[in-house]
């Protein structure tokens, strides 16, 4: 059993390296894309509110733009959840290798 566990630990070393690089890459991409998506969602909200207040769109159209802005705002949040799951997997594999 000890030999099998040692073999599994050695086999997991490259997987830990790949998952670590994937985690770093994901965090980097999420960092930059969140800036773009938050600006874009703010523009959706601003356009919806101003067009409704100036009478250029109906309430339903403004709500559609607000909903679209919210969806665009949530895309980086979902990405952060995926990166957090990858980080949890990485921590679990590292803990197994150290045990």
On the 0 to 100 scale, the average pLDDT is 93
What are the secondary-structure elements, in order, as H or E?
Answer: HH
Domains, number: 1
Helical/strand content category = mainly alpha
Q: Termini separation (Å)?
A: 14 Å
Oligomer: single chain
The count of DSSP E runs of length 2 or more, i.e. the number of strands, is 0
Helix content: over 70%
Q: How does the major sheet shape up?
A: none
Strand content: under 5%
Cα-atom radius of gyration: 22 Å
Low-pLDDT ranges: none
Question: Can you put this structure into words, describing what you see?
Answer:
The protein is mainly alpha-helical and 99 residues long. It has 2 helices and no strands. It has one domain. The longest helix is centred in the first third of the chain and has 52 residues. It is rod-shaped, with a radius of gyration of 22 Å.
SSE diagram, text form:
Layout: H1 2-53, H2 59-98
Helix pairs in contact: 1-2
Question: What keywords describe this structure?
Answer:
99 residues; mainly alpha; 2 helices; rod-shaped
What's this model, at a glance?
With 99 residues, the chain is mostly helical. Helix content is 93%, strand content 0%.
